[in-house]
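Re: beginner question about structure tokens

> Can someone show what the tokenized structure looks like for a real chain? I only ever see the sequence side.

Sure, here's an example I had lying around. Input first:
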Amino acid sequence: MQTLKIEILGGPKCRYTQTTCERVLKIIDELGIEANVTRVTRAAEIAIYPLEYMPGIVIDGRLVYSSQGEVTTPYGVQLTVPAEEEIREMVRQARLTSGAGPSERT
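And the corresponding structure tokens:
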């Protein structure tokens, strides 16, 4: 079984990035799959991806999620984080395209 490489892109102190990371780890555990999850915070490493807003999720080198600026507030843009079901589907799709197969715990 192939191990997925998952990168969470975002600022080191960003609460949206932290929430995204926590959700990804939860889904990986729930699905019972093998994955290396890392948090990427260096601007030079993030800059290779076409992100307008962070956080972003990269699975096996492919950008699969980029936050959308939902609402502009007096304090800036209110960012989004992916819902758990969105993350679950991203991981399932990545497993199918990587040849890891559809088997997982339900």
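Each token stands for a local structural state, so reading them left to right follows the chain. The longest helix spans residues 15-31.
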